[in-house]
Amino acid sequence: MHKLTTCLFLFVCVSVFSAFQASDGASCDSKNLRERAKKTLDPFKYDSAKLTKITYKTKESVKEVEVPLFIGEKYRFVFNTEGISKPVIISVYNKDKDARTRKLLFSTEGTPAAEKQQVWEHTHSMKVFVDYSIPAADSTATPGCVFFMLGYQ
Amino acid sequence: MYLKKVSFLVTPLVTSAFCLALSSCGSAPKADQDANASPKDSVAAVKTDAQTEDKPSFTLPSPLQIASIFKKAGLLYYPNIANAPENVSKYNSGKISQALNLGIYSADLSYSALNKQNQESKSYMKASRELASQLGLSKVFETDNLAERFEKNLSVDDSLASIIAEMQMQTDLILEEHEQEYISATVFAGAWVESMYIGGKVYEKGKAKNVSFRLVEQMAIAENIIKALKSYEAKDASITPVIADLTTTREIFKNFAGVKAMANSQEDIDFSKITITEDEIGQLIKKIDEIRARIIKG
C-alpha cells in the first residue's frame, strides 16, 4: 500500500511539474516566435508585435487587439499559433466588438490546424481589430499564446 | 487504521491537486492587458455566448514608421529642430524622464537617418544608446552587432532603416521579457511628441498640406498612447503628468469645429476626412511645443 501511495504521489508531482512548465510559457518563447515571424515579415519592415496569452475557459471566449495603421501604407500581418494547444480562429475586422456592424477583413477559419503561421496583407485602413476566438475547453487545457507581428513597406 | 491509510493517500493528492489548480491560475496573464471581448452584432462575428473581459489591448507603431510617413508626406530636413544630443546628460532624474527622452532621441534618430544626415544620426545613436543603457537596454545594441552595423551602413538608406527597425524589435522583446511594457509605452509617448513637434515645425516653415494631414492623422494614435499609459499609471506616478498633457492635447483636437462636426455625425471619426484650419493646427503645434519643452528639460 505504501509503495502504491508513493508511486501515486510521484506521478502527481510529475504532473504538477509538467503543468508548471507548460503554463510558464515553454511554448510561448517570445524570442523564437519573433524570429520565425520576422523571417515571414521580410521584406516588410518591423513595426510592432504582440504576444497574446491564451487561457482556455469552459465557455468560448474572444480576445481583441486594436492595431492602429496609417492611410496609404501597405502592411503585412504575421500570426504564429505554434504556442497554442487547441486551435484559435483569428479574425480581423474594421471595427471593434462593440460596433453595431463591422466588416470581416480576414479570417483563418477553415485553415488546417497544422498551418501554424498565417500571413495577411492589408492597406487603406486607419485601424483594424484582431480577434482571437478561443474555443471552450476544460480547465486542464494547457494555456498558450498567439504571436502577432506587423510590418510595413 | 483504515482512516489513517486513506488520509495518507488522499493528503498528497489533494495537495497536488491544489498545486495544479494554483499553477493554472498562475499561468494567466499577469497584468492581463489583453482584452477579452465578444464580437456582438458583427457582420461575421462568432455567434456564441463568448466570455468577455474589458481591458483594452493594442499595439503602438514604431517611431521609425511615423518618421517614414512624415518623410513620404514631404517633410524636409531642417538642422537644429531636433533635440540636441548633448542634452542626454540632463536625463538622469528617473526612469520615466529617461524613457520619454529615449523616445525623443529615437524620433530624432529616425528623422536624421531617413534624411541621410550621417553625422547627426551617429550622434543620436550615441545619445539613444546612453539612455537605453541607463534603462537596462544595452543588450539591444549588442544583438547581431546592431550598433556596429549601423555605423557601417550610414550611407545606405534602406539598410539603416532596417537596422533601426531591428533595434526596435530587440527593444520590444527585452521590455516584454522583463515585463517592462510600461517603459515601451513611455518611450513611444516621447517619440510621438517629438515626431509631432518636428512635423509641426516643418509645417510652419512650408505649410505643406500633406504634412498637416499626417499631423491630424497622428491624433488617432494619441488616443492609444493615453490608454496605454493609463493602464500602467499605477507602476510609476511620474506617468500621470504625461497622461494629463496628452489628454489636454486630445481635448484641444476634439474641440476643433471639423472634428466636432464629424464626431456628432458618425460613430467613428474618420481622420482622413477631417479638415482643420491653419489656426487650429497652430493651437495643436503650440500645445505639443509646451509638452516637448517639459520633457527635454529633464
Question: Which chains make the largest contact?
Answer: A-B, 66 and 64 residues
Radius of gyration of chain B: 24 Å
CATH topology of chain A: Jelly Rolls
Structural class of chain B: mainly alpha
Uncertain runs of chain A? 12-26
Word description of this protein:
The complex is a heterodimer of chains A (153) and B (298). Chain A has a single domain, classed as Jelly Rolls. Helices cover 22% and strands 37% of the residues of chain A. Chain A has helices at residues 2-23, 30-41, and strands spanning 45-54, 61-68, 75-80, 89-93, 104-107, 117-122, 127-134, 144-152. The longest helix of chain A has 22 residues, at 2-23. Chain A is globular. Residues 12-26 of chain A have low confidence and may be disordered. With 298 residues, chain B is an all-alpha fold. In chain B, 66% of the residues lie in helices and 1% in strands. In chain B, α3 (95-114) packs antiparallel against α4 (118-134). Chain B starts with a helix and ends with a helix. Residues 1-49 of chain B have low confidence and may be disordered. The chains are: A alpha+beta (153), B mainly alpha (298). Chains A and B meet through α1, α2, β1, β2 and β4 of A and α1, β1, α2, α7 and α10 of B. β2 (61-68) of chain A pairs antiparallel with β1 (35-36) of chain B, so a sheet runs across the interface.
